[in-house]
Amino acid sequence: MIKSRNKKITWSINDNGCWICTSHSSKGRYLTYYVNGKSMMMHRYMYEKYKGKIPDGILACHTCDNTSCINPDHLFLGTQADNMADMVKKGRQSTGRINNRGQGNGSHKLTEKQVCSIKYDYPCSTRTEIAKIFNISISMVSHIMLNKNWKHI
User: Fold this and answer.
1) CA dist., res. 23 & res. 46, Å (int)
2) Which of 42-46, 68-72, 100-104, 119-123 has the lowest mean pLDDT?
3) The pTM is what?
């Protein structure tokens, strides 16, 4: 196998043929691998190890849509536009429908009524004061007031 900081890369193979790394863990979506003291995504490392150098500005995209997969046969090279087109083709993009916005989004912290209140009921209050009232970050208040979040309200 391959070594990373004296630790071998090991994996198990699932029913889809994905190589799921068992030797390393990740705090984010992608595993990190260190080469010459610099970190790179492990799936990119595995692609380069088995298939060759990835040109600058090019992504190693997953055909299997499994970010934990490090199988070089499940990777293809492409631009960000290619990766987004692949996502759309597979129907994995956000639909952009109204029910995915605001309260329709599962991670919302505010109601539409609260957002309206932030936008229209506190014209003289500071963003810090508003953030404390609604128990949200100052940047969230800014994004609401600048119409970057909750645009549909």
Assistant:
1) 14
2) 100-104
3) 0.58
